[in-house]
Amino acid sequence: MRLRGPAGQPIPDYIAEVAADLFYRDGIHAVGVDRVANTAGLTKRTLYRHFRSKDDLIAASLRRAPRVKFPDAGGPTERIIGAFDMLEHFLNGTKYRGCPYIIFTAELTEPGHPARRLIEKLLAKRRRWFHDRAAEAGLHNPEEVAEQLDVLFDGAAASGAKRGDIVAVRAAKGLVRMVLASAAPSRDRARVAPRALSHRSCERRSYEKLT
């Protein structure tokens, strides 16, 4: 019985990685457990030894699906703009497939599904990240700013995936600067909206993973 995946990872991690790639690329309903097991080179019995159901496998795979990396260095408003720079980079890198949270939610209609609950937690963590950066920048009403930024982020991700381009993300960055400027103390409004980073700059920066 295999105990490790091809990269030396535990078998449950390997199965979840294979499932994440298949679910993200082809869709949850289009990919059955048999296909996941066959792609992983395992028996279905082995898969079910580690995951009690397909629902549990979907939740585990979500943690390994592609996602946007958020900057963990720089000033707070620079990091906010940097998150949208990295969304642009992400859409390019995934060939505009889009945000796994949006993709999985669209297919999982049951509110109590374990993956839906996980998505709610991950989205709350993303809003908290925006809130904390807004608070660090001294912006007025960071809770509202965080909601506005999160709406722009989700909308840009969804639009980029549907249109297959980054026009919406770039438009969203202009709106982000407006949100930051309008929430900034009057003395700081000229400096709270830094210019966007180039892709080369994005690749050189350090990031944090919102999981």
Give an account of the 3D structure.
The structure is a single chain. With 211 residues, the chain is mostly helical. Helices cover 64% and strands 2% of the residues. The protein has helices at 11-26, 33-40, 44-50, 54-62, 76-93, 100-107, 114-136, 142-163, 167-183, 199-204, and strands at residues 70-71, 207-208. The chain has a two-stranded antiparallel ribbon with strand order 1-2. Helix 7 (114-136) packs across helix 8.
List the helices and strands and how they pair.
Blueprint: H1 11-26, H2 33-40, H3 44-50, H4 54-62, E1 70-71, H5 76-93, H6 100-107, H7 114-136, H8 142-163, H9 167-183, H10 199-204, E2 207-208
Antiparallel strand pairs: 1-2
Helix pairs in contact: 1-2, 1-4, 4-7, 5-7, 5-8, 5-9, 7-8, 8-9
Largest sheet: 2 strands, antiparallel
How big a fraction of the residues is strand?
under 5%
Provide mean pLDDT, rounded. 88
Low-confidence stretches: none
Residues in helices, as a percent range? 55-70%
Shape: elongated
Count the DSSP helices.
10
Q: What is the CATH fold-level name of the largest domain? A: Tetracycline Repressor, domain 2
Helix/strand-derived class?
mainly alpha
Characterize this entry briefly.
This protein is an all-alpha fold. 64% of the residues lie in helices and 2% in strands. It has a two-stranded antiparallel sheet.
